[in-house]
Amino acid sequence: MRLTSKGRYAVMAMADLAMEGGALRAVPLQDIAQRQQISLSYLEQLFARLRRAELVAGVRGPGGGYRLGRSPDAIPIAAIVAAVNEPIQATRCKSGGRGCMAKGARCVTHELWDDLGRTIAAYLATVSLADVVEGRIGDAQPDMVAAE
Predict the structure, then answer these.
(1) Which of 18, 74, 93, 130 has the highest Cβ tally under 10 A?
(2) CA angle 13, 28, 32 (to 5 degrees)
(3) Model confidence at 102: pLDDT above 80
(4) For the chain, which residues make up each domain, given as ranges?
């Protein structure tokens, strides 16, 4: 799956913001960067995109920083990932219908990986930022049994 650090870091930073009372008060990016061990300049780039998507709002002046643009219950993880332009794609095929094989053909497993990408995207759309922050992930999910 091609969920790179951009999407993971955006979700981590948003969860940190929510945990630190970001729904009610502004939290400085420098504090988030320090707690999550993410470069401040990288976070600034991510938060500019999150702000454009109205997932966060900037607060200027003393005590400034960022706060959540809406309730953590109303922010799906898929929206965070999409806001930072991170494609949820499990295939290695190019966009625009071009495949990953020579001359643009699709590989024999394309449909498998394409379906997996859609399943991941659908799952992330059902998980809210509040679910992550409140630890409602994992235990409520069906057990995955390895095929032997």
Answers:
(1) 18
(2) 30
(3) no
(4) 5-133
